[in-house]
Structures are given as C-alpha cells and as structure tokens.
Amino acid sequence: MVRRLLFLAGIVAAALLAATLLGPSLRGVAHPLVPQGPDGTYQCSTCHGPGADPSAIPAGTTVPLPPPDHAAYKPDSCVTCHATVVAQDPTTPSYALCATCHGQKDKLTKLPDGETLQVSVDVAAFRSSVHGDFSCTECHPKQRTIPHAPLTAADLRAFKQEMGNVCQSCHAEATASYAESFHGMAARLGVSRAATCTDCHTAHAVKAPAQWTLAERATQCATCHTGATASFASGWMGHREPSLGWFPMVFFASKFFVALTALTLGVGIVHVELDVLRWSSNKIRGRKEEVDQ
To answer: pTM for the complete prediction?
Structure first.
C-alpha cells in the first residue's frame, strides 16, 4: 500500500515538474502587449484586420485575420472573449479590459423589469475623478468575471440604491450626515425616488458638488427636480447642518421655528392647566352653594 502511494506521489511530482518546465513551450509564445487608446480601450485592430499597421507588428510574427463570422463585432472588443491575450484583468487599475466594452458610447443593458440601464463609462472623466486610482471591481465586485453575472436589481431605482450601499461601505461619515439630510430622511421614510449617492455625485465622474459650478449643480438637480435652475441649486446645503457660517438664514429660521414650537406648546399647556383649574374651581364652588341652600 505504501509503495503504491509513493508511486502515485512520484507521478504527480513528475507531472508538476513537466508542466513547470514545458508549460511555456506548450502554451506557445506569449501575446505581445496590446496597444491601448487614450481612453484605455485595447486597440486590437492595430495589428489584426484591414488597415493594420505593419510597423506595429513584431518582426517574424504572423498575425491571423479575424474569421469572417466576426464581422459583426466591434474591432476593439476582441478581449471580451480573448481575455488571455492581455496582461491585465478587471481587478487591476488599468481599466483597459473593462473599458473595451464600457468605454463604448451609448452602451445599454436591460434590467428584469424592462427598464434600460446606461452602462457606458466616460473613462477619461473617471480617471480624473476622486476614484480615479480605484480598480473597477472595488465598487463592482460581482463583475470580476467575463461575461458578468446577471444584475440582481429588479429595476433602475433598486440598482441605484444597491450602488448607494456600496458608497456607504467606505463613506461612513458622509452616510451619517446624509441620513440627517432631506434626501436621507425621505429615503428612511420609504420614498423610493429619494436621491441616493450617485444621483447627486454621479456614478463615475465623482466629485463633491461644492466643486461644481452652479450651472453643473443645477443640471444634476434637474435630473430629479424638473426645471431646477442655478438659484435652486444654490439653496442646496448638502450633508452639512446649517450654522452661523453655513446657510445662516436657514440656521436662524430653524432656531426660530424650534423656539416658536416650544413657546406654542408651553402656552398651550399653561392654558389647559388654567382651564382645568377654573373648571375645578367652578365645581367646588357649585357644591358649596348646594350645601348652603
């Protein structure tokens, strides 16, 4: 029995050694680095297909042409299926593999309820955003494989709320202040159209609205508030509580209404107590009059 186990272990060790030594030759020569465009997409057509650039093809390399049945595919989407020819993958911050598809303009997908979801990404805007050094899968962990797993959100609103939860996993302080804002309180009360993180900050070109011009903020507000103008946008306080230095008019107005509410309740309580005292006094006086008679 021991001899058989030793024999099997020897076979396994020999196979592993052979795979290590002969693996590269069995797999063939590694694919050269694929050129990338300014937006990060792989430019496979530089070498493959009509219009290829001969100077980009390594000497002595035979470049196969795409099969006739590939004519329907975009020339720069090859790595969607041929992912092994690139050195990077979606978990690295090169974005190239993801941008091959998502860098295309007007790319759409359908959610289970039939709503259309825009899945195009302005890669240049994303790279210049505050999240520009992140890998795609840091926020989209379910999209680590190609093709992607189906989206779990039933509709567009559910998808935005799901992505809002991803933002909250890193931005704890902003999440706490959002919960106290008008939008956050509406969301807690179950208002399905209440603004989530990406409604105000956008999904990929992320920056604080304070860094936007009023016109840009008004455009973003108008996605939910039809007809929003720069004046409308200037009245938005964000996550911060009003103070003497931040929206002082709102601060004083809120304090005034708190004081007015307290004063109204106080006067009301005193009024009720005086009324009860008067009623009790009248009852006692009436009984004394009955006794005297």
So the answer is: 0.56
